[in-house]
Structure formats: C-alpha cells, structure tokens
Amino acid sequence: MTHGVNELEVARQFSETSARVNEVLEKKKKGKKKEADPEDLKKELEMWEHKVSVEELCEKLSTSPQDGLTTAKAEEILKRDGPNLLSPPKVTPMWIKYLLCYTDIFSMLLTVAAALCFLGYGLDSSTMDNLYLGCILTGVVVLTATFGFIQNAKSEKTMEMFRNFLPPQALVHRDGKQFLMPASQLVVGDVVDVKLGDKVPADLRIIQNAKLKVDNSSLTGEPEPQARSVDCTDENPLETRNLAFFGTLCVDGTATGVVVQTGDRTVFGRIAGLAASGGDDITTLQIEIHKFVVAISIYAISLGLIFFFIGLGKGTEIITNIVFTIAIIVANVPEGLLVTVTVSLTLTAKRMAKKQVLVKKLACVETLGSTTTICSDKTGTLTQNRMTVVHLVYGDRIETTKTATTEMTYDVND
Known about the structure:
By secondary structure, this protein is an alpha+beta fold. It contains 15 helices and nine strands. Strands 1, 2, 3, 4, 5, 6 and 7 form a seven-stranded antiparallel sheet that branches. Strand 8 and strand 9 (397-400) form a beta hairpin. Helix 6 (105-123) runs antiparallel to helix 12 and helix 7 runs parallel beside helix 13. The longest helix has 31 residues, at 284-314. The protein starts with 6 loop residues before the first helix and ends in a 7-residue tail after the last helix.
C-alpha cells in the first residue's frame, strides 16, 4: 500500500514471473508447448545472454571484453534503443481521480434520486419538499466524493523513485579506454566495471568476477547478499548467478560485465511494468454494496410503478401521479448509507495510520480489517530490513533487550 509501483508489488511480480519462466522451461524440456494467452507470452522473460559463452556473447553484441564498444557503434545503438532510463507509469490526473469518485454505484444511485427530486419539483413547484431533498442528496454525493478523494489522494513519488534506481555515473570501457560517463548513456554491448557500494547501472552479464555479491532486495524482497559468477548456473535468467540486474546494489567484491539490457527492457523495467499495469481488484465490500444497490433499485422502481398504475386506475391526475411515484422511489433510497460507509472507513483508516499502516484506498480497509493472519517470508519488504538482538545469554541467565518489538504494546480497545 504505497505510492505508485511499490517494492512489495515488484517483489511479488518478480516471484510470479520467475515461477512462470521455470514452468515454461520445464515444459520445453518435456517437449510440451505452453498453452497460454499471447499477452501472457509477452510477459515471459526470454533471455539468451546468460546461456552462451563470453566469446559468443561479445561476438553477437559486436563488442570486446577488454576494449568495449567503439564510440560510433555506441552512438548507433543509443539512437536505436534510446537512453538507459525507466519510463514512469502513466499517472491519472487528479481531476480525473476526483470525477471517478462520482462513478461509485451508490453515488450514482443517489445522483439519480436527486435528479428525480428536481424533476418532481419541476413538475409540481407548489411544494418545496422535492427541491430541498434534491439539494440534500446532491450535497451528500458531493461531500462523500470529496471526502473519499481527499483520503485516497496521496502524493505521487513514482518519478523520484525511478530516478533513485539509476546511479548518476558508470565506469565504462570504450575504444580501449576506461572512463566515467552518465549511466543514462549506457547501451547494449558496453563493458562496465562495478564494485562495492555501486548500483548496477543496467542488466549485466558477468564476464570477470572477484567475489562480487549483490543485494537483490529491490527485486526479490530478500536482503541476503547473492554471490555472482561468470558461469551460467540456471536456465532461468532470474535465478542464474552470471547476471546482475539493474537497480541492485553491490555489497561486496568487484566485477566486470557486458550490458545486455537497458531502460525499460531490463528485468526491473519489465517487472515494474507488470506491477504498474495490474488492475485494481474489487473488494468484498464493493461487491456487497453493488448487490445491495441493485436489489434496492429494483425494489424502489417496482414499488413506484405499482403505485403509479394504482394511481392511473383511480384516475389521479397524471402530473400528481408522476410526482408521487418519484417520491416513492426516492423514499426507498437509503440516503445516509453512503455517508455512514465513507465515515466508518475513514475513521478506521485514521486508526490504522496511527499504527503506521498506510491505506491507499478506502475500499481496502474492510478487506484488511477482516484479515486475521498474514504469512510472508519477505524480510526487508514487510519489515524494516534490520536485525536486532532480542534475547541474550549472560551469566547463565537469559536477558531480554529493549527493542521496538519487546517494548511494543497492544491495546485491544484501541
């Protein structure tokens, strides 16, 4: 529940994609064809760069493991592929987000009820009741939509997050020379040196290694350093050790690698694209409210039509009959339910915020509130990625240290 493409969603997509690639590889070994949608096939990470030898890789990419690319070749590839930058996902304008708050099915029901009230007042202006009720219903819809928008609207930090993934400079071999250059100008085939403390500037195939270890937590959520090697250890590109991925951190050793993917074509770029393109699931509360609105609408309209035909049978004046029918329909609409639901969810979200839980969408509160147990092994994604000593043995006694965990209290009434 963070802004834009968060780390938890990226880690989930990485895990699912890795499993899907493993499944495809297993079926290929068995000679089976994968039965899947064409859209699913596009999501699979098909890479060959980790399977071939260093010599074959450099030959196919027209580069040299010692001298790197020539400047002319690098400029040609840069024009073809573009800069080594991630494209931020499309952000919905705030005014569209505000208008979408009015598309909730219950808000639409109240809007129709308000319109019927104004229609009733237009047909019979001798009494102001319909006008007052129409204004009240309109006010309820506007206030609840605005209230929900303010609660859901969060500052967009997607651009800043993507910029932070890219290091400002990279140590590159070109024309037989070694020099620093902007990481955004890297292209496929560049030979790059990385060392302890560096962020990997692009997807690299390791060609020289001196005990390099990388932190893949930005992709996998696991903070345990992963050793890299020159040799291919797995057909799955997400699991092999001879690839270092864009945005990961070098925590030990040094290495030299050939750039095999840049920008949105990197593993992180494709995984982030999957995470950003995921649609919003409908919550249980939204499903139940939708069913309730459909049922109450059928009931109200049916009751209104019954009284309309009764009025026609009694010979009631047509205008009076229509106004009375509108009043019957509006009377069966629970005007206060929308406000009650919105206020309840907002108060719950504020209580959760006090517990350091950020709720991005109000509709998620009900689902999260009914959760009893969360099972996860994503250390560093759901936690602070910090290990602390809670118990220690000293002088034949077990001592409990003061940590955030041991000092945390829980009030069942809060």
